[in-house]
Amino acid sequence: MSSSMQTKKEARNGTYTFSSHPRPLQNRSKYREPAAESNEGSSNYVNIMYDRRVVRGNTYAQHILPLAAQPDPIEIQRQQEARRRAAARKRAKAQFRSRTPEAVDGRTHVDVQTELYLEELSDHVEECSVECQTDAFLDKPASPLFIPAKSGKDVATQIEEGELFDFDVEVRPLLEVLVGKTIEQSLVEVMEEEELASLRARQRLFEELRNAELVEVQRLEERERRHREEKERRLKQQREVLRKEKETAEKIAARAYAQQYLVDLLPSVYTTLKDHGYFYDPVERDLETEFFPWLMAQVNNTLEKRNVARAVLDMLLRDVTQHKSDLFQQMAHKSPDSN
């Protein structure tokens, strides 16, 4: 009765707790038996998908099943401590946070979500992850070969001092061989050193000859380079001379052709230009453009003045004649009256 009440209380609190009675572990061998592996009972699960202790699916909406076992008091105490710390942290935040002023009369404050994206507010189930690392099963090594047990009694032979061999007699040939091999190896090493010295001397001589040949090759290459540059320079000069000679010949030919072409053209052109007035005598042109117009202007002025004088004279003569004619007519009219 007490366990069911405890389970209902935890269900109301929104936590899920699993506990089981302690049980001793089964003795198992270090290596995995292939034959026994297939004959194991349902208690040893190889695949965790068939383990009833593994919870599959969404754990947020997990239904709390009543458990027959009592919950762990340490876990309950830890959860209560966590809730107390959360409440204390919430109260501390509420104290340090600036409070909203009280609403005026007739109005009330309403909680409004101000996040960028709307989020459904719901109670989240507290959860925790627990892991358990087990040793991997090792493949069973190959069975050792069958060695039958030894039967019977061992037989021993005792050898007294001097019965097996004489140390001085037996060791002398071995010592001679070792000393001979050592001397032979030393002689071989000395001969190798002499051969290496000879090889080094030959190598130095070869390097000296090679350096001398390299110097000679460099000298010959430098001389060949100078000859090649001189040859290119001479060829360039010769090409330049040929080009200038060709240009000179072309200019002379063009000049001769132009002279031959212009022999008959120049007189006709000059005659045409002269006829059109492009070639003229400066004195004649000055007389025609400056003196003759001025002279004609002066002559015209003189003639105009003479014509004006003649016209004035004619007017005077006409007036005098008219006046005389009038006088004579008056005299002619007066004379009959007087008679």
UniProtKB/TrEMBL annotation:
Region Disordered, annotated ranges: 1-40
Keywords of this entry: Cell projection, Cilium, Coiled coil, Cytoplasm, Cytoskeleton, Flagellum, Phosphoprotein
Coiled-coil regions, chain positions: 210-259
Main localization (coarse): cytoplasm
Span of the signal peptide: none
GO CC list: cilium
Subcellular location: Cytoplasm, Cytoskeleton, Flagellum axoneme
Xref: Pfam families: Radial_spoke_3 (PF06098)
Family from the record: Belongs to the flagellar radial spoke RSP3 family.
Protein name: Radial spoke head 3
Organism from which the protein derives: Megalops atlanticus
